[in-house]
Specification:
Blueprint (H helix, E strand, L loop, with lengths): L5 H8 L10 E4 L13 E4 L4 E3 L6 E3 H9 L6 H9 L9 H19 L7 H13 L5 H9 L4 H7 L2 E2 L5 H10 L10 E3 L5 E3 L5 E7 L5 E8 L7 E3 L16 E3 L5 E6 L1 H11 L3 E4 L8 H10 L4 E4 L9 H17 L2 E4 L9 H11 L3
Parallel strand pairs: 12-13, 12-14, 14-15
Antiparallel strand pairs: 1-2, 2-3, 3-4, 5-8, 6-7, 8-9, 9-10, 11-13
Helix pairs in contact: 1-2, 9-12
Length: 362
Amino acid sequence: MVEIHISDIIPLIGIPGPTNGKTVYNISCPCCDDNPRKKHLNINLQKDVFCCPRCHFSGGVFDLYAYYAGVDRHNVRRLLLERLGLKDSGSQHDGGKRKQEKRTVTQAFQRDIELPLTDIDARHETYTALLSKLSLASDHHENLLSRGLTDDQIQRFGYKTMPVVGYAAIAKQLQSEGHYLAGVPGFYHNKDGSWTLIQEKRGILVPVRDPDGKIQGLQVRRDNIKRGKFRWISSVGKQDGCKAECWTHIVGSPAPTVLLTEGPLKADIINHLTGLTVIAVPGVNSLTHLKEMLEYVQSKGTTRIMTVFDMDYLKNPHVKDGYYNLAAMLAEVGIEYGTYLWDPQYKGLDDYVWHCRQEGTL
């Protein structure tokens, strides 16, 4: 039987094709995107499926063609063979094979395809609602106070404790309130087809925010972990799950000089203790979204970036190599940059500044 792929029908239905050789890309959803700049419909050329995480418009090759061409789904294969000038050697069994193809595509789609990331507004609303339903445990509250934060700042930054039970109940409540769960990292469908929240180790949930203060994603600072303490809340690899990206965090309004550090929690503390604007990457080797943030603050008048990574970069070759890559990016953007140093017995600038504040020397 002749196979027909989404790549074959793109010129016929007039949707945008992929760029730079991509096999997975997004276009505007014809069912729910009212703004051409929004692109929620995910096209997967490798697996010949498509899906919108907002309105759930989804299916395979024939479904896509039937919608855009406005024809009966049952006649699509015959019409496409004619338009593409193809002959089907197995046409005498066409009806049975058509049904088999439809089932195969649908099962592969449900089992293998993760949903594309939904827009920042939907993520922010869902994460804000999620955090409003959670509390901050007393040990986490004391930990944050011991690092120099006040009760007001703890509430303003939105830290909460990662729950250890009730994941499906939380997801059900959010969905019943009308919040998007599809395309929001951390949420996925469990085996019985219900939405649930990813199970993660207990720890402090830390919102990672964009320049408008909207929550792009969540990290968890896990309890009693020495290596890999911070993890993204992500449902990568789960049915209808979604991966978290290495978002860049910012706290404070753009200023002529902006600090750059590692980790959103550290950035929040430094901002609170110094009043300075701080950008935070997830790690010195995680610079995926940093360039766009640098270009943003540059457009708002920032002319100088001062890096304030933990002092162990002086002796950690892995961190040191990442710092060189960072320096190259800063030079490419065209922002003047330098590095602040402090007493190395204090690993982070947040630790050092808090010590100075307690000693009355700052």
